[in-house]
Amino acid sequence: MKIVVIVKEVPDTYGERRLDLETGLADRAASEAVLDEIGERALEVALAYADSHDDAEIVVMSMAAESAAATIRKGLAMGAASAVHITDPGLAAADLGLTARTLAAAIRRTGFDLVIAGNLSTDGSGGVVPAMLAELLDVPNATALSSVEIAAGSVSGTRNIDGATVRVKAELPAVISITEALPDARLPNFKGIMAAKKKPFETLSAADLGIEPEDLSVAMSIMTAIAEKPPRAAGVKIIDAGDGGTRIAEFLIENRLA
Amino acid sequence: MTDHPADAILVVLETTPNGELATSAAGLLGAASRIGTPVALAVVAPGQAPALAEQAAALGAATVLVVETTSTHAELTVPQVDALAAAAAVVAPHAVLISNSIDGRDVAGRFAARSGAAIAVDAIGVSRDDEGIVAHHSVYGGAYNVDSAATFGPLVVTVRQGAVDARAEARPVAIESLDVSPSGAASAAIESVEAVTETSSRPELRGATRVVAGGRGLGSTEKFALVEDLADALGAAIGASRAAVDAGYIPANHQVGQTGVSVSPQLYIALGISGAIQHRTGMQTAKNIVAVNKDPDAPIFEVADFGVVGDVFTVVPQLISALAERKR
């Protein structure tokens, strides 16, 4: 069972996150970069399976800036067997389509029985890449799973959509994405960190994958404008002097909200 | 086959697990009507098409393309994508608007990958300029406004639920049945669907116009009832911070924020919520924000239009009785 876990380096949400107003790209210097928590949970799903199945081989994969190598290495320290880092200056401004095509090419190259991703990243919050990968790889998608059971030839789980809880099952190979309802990831221990140094770490360019980032014959989504929103002006703040509730009621009525 | 308007915008209608039109339809058709002629796609169980088409027309669909099939009950995503691909081939839309729900994102992602179309996600609005369709986004927790567009071809857009206020005028019902040849793409099987029965008559959090949310400041499950009392007084949906969910005061489907639901209501009342960035990400596009918190330095006050530094257990009961007083 070969499991590819897609992880992402994101700006730490505990710091200030900035976009460069010239390029529209994330300002990497503005905040600390971390492994996205949801990707760590996706890795934990794979590691938990590997704990009881010797045949499991886990590959962490990321398309990220060159500087993200250290962050991706954390996945090896946690227990993945190898890492694939796709990095290319031409991919820095990749839209979702190019991202999905590049990842799909890398996944195909690596080989897979199961691909696990997080349902939503904390920076882009796109949430469409897993379904795009499934289409490009011609396999089933089972996204937003809040529980996952991996069997020899299939994967099943529960997804909580608006108004219903749905049980789904996909034959392998397949692509799944998981929600934050799944357990926190284990911490890398000292032994894991030392072992990570000897594990295979493959770095690939777009050309290695046969991807042409500037292919203008492919439709792309481009950023046409970016503006920093004026910080939401704090309104009135009062200290409750016994009439706080009444004052809120007045505010609501005045603004036709009640 | 009828001719479709040159400025067609294809809107994918979502249905609830029991086959009714989802609340997202009004905003999607409203948004579509501002940038072209809304053509709706309904993939429904046999027999449900007429009722659904009537509702969609009332919300502004010029034409409702209908696919009647039971395959959506058995297979995940792929039947809708096959139907959407067939609809797009017939309509040649300038844009495809889809709800930014879990299922909507899957359909949008697979369709964009299959058709090679550009995709824009979690838009809070759409517009049209000389070059075509533009999607508007609010990113990094609302700190930046970003516009995006396709280099060419249709733009597939997932639209944040509740973000579009525009509503289209009702049109006469025009149903057109659509033939779909299954792609045969591998799909996950749906083994069971269990409707989550919300026991209360409160509105659903997603798409609600008013939300009252509680945080750790409520202190216990019993005391969280205060949030429910105020919500009921205002006809509002109930939200919660991650802290309140983690503490077990309320189920996780009420969580607002980065890892929960994003809401853009007319009114958001935050009770006992400090307002960590992860929470603000999910609510700061609300039109009006009211906050009550003991801590005068709580970050929630930075985004509140009206903030009261005080004890929720004295302020909120007073607010509820003031609202009741007014109704009398």
Automatic annotation (TrEMBL), chain A:
Q: Which Pfam families match?
A: ETF
Q: Which cofactor does it need?
A: FAD
UniProt KW Calcium keyword: no
Which SMART domains does the annotation name?
A: ETF
Give a Gene Ontology cellular component term annotated to this protein: cytosol
Claim: Electron transport is one of the keywords in the record: yes
Domain Electron transfer flavoprotein alpha/beta-subunit N-terminal intervals = 23-213
MF-aspect GO terms: electron transfer activity
Gene3D superfamilies registered for this protein in UniProt: HUPs (3.40.50.620)
Query: What keywords is this UniProt entry annotated with?
Result: Electron transport, Transport
Q: Which domain of life is it from?
A: Bacteria
| Family of the protein in this entry | Belongs to the ETF beta-subunit/FixA family.
State the function annotated in the UniProt record.
The electron transfer flavoprotein serves as a specific electron acceptor for other dehydrogenases. It transfers the electrons to the main respiratory chain via ETF-ubiquinone oxidoreductase (ETF dehydrogenase).
PANTHER family linked: ELECTRON TRANSFER FLAVOPROTEIN BETA-SUBUNIT, ELECTRON TRANSFER FLAVOPROTEIN SUBUNIT BETA
Subunit details for this protein? Heterodimer of an alpha and a beta subunit.
Q: What is this protein called?
A: Electron transfer flavoprotein subunit beta
TrEMBL record, chain B:
- Which residues take part in binding FAD? 216, 241-242, 255-259, 272-279, 293
GO biological process assignments = fatty acid beta-oxidation using acyl-CoA dehydrogenase
Question: How is the cofactor bound, as the UniProt entry phrases it?
Answer: Binds 1 FAD per dimer.
Q: Indicate yes or no for the key word Ubl conjugation.
A: no
Span of domain Electron transfer flavoprotein alpha/beta-subunit N-terminal = 9-193
Pfam families xref list: ETF, ETF_alpha
Q: Which domain of life is it from?
A: Bacteria
Q: Which cofactor does it need?
A: FAD
Gene Ontology molecular function: electron transfer activity; flavin adenine dinucleotide binding
| Matches recorded under Gene3D superfamilies | HUPs (3.40.50.620), TPP-binding domain (3.40.50.1220)
Q: InterPro entries given for it?
A: DHS-like_NAD/FAD-binding_dom (IPR029035), ETF_a/b_N (IPR014730), ETF_a/FixB (IPR001308), ETF_asu_C (IPR014731), ETF_asu_C_CS (IPR018206), Rossmann-like_a/b/a_fold (IPR014729)
How does this polypeptide assemble, per the annotation? Heterodimer of an alpha and a beta subunit.
Q: Which family does it belong to?
A: Belongs to the ETF alpha-subunit/FixB family.
Task performed by this protein:
The electron transfer flavoprotein serves as a specific electron acceptor for other dehydrogenases. It transfers the electrons to the main respiratory chain via ETF-ubiquinone oxidoreductase (ETF dehydrogenase).
Official protein name in the record: Electron transfer flavoprotein alpha subunit apoprotein
Name its species.
Agromyces ramosus
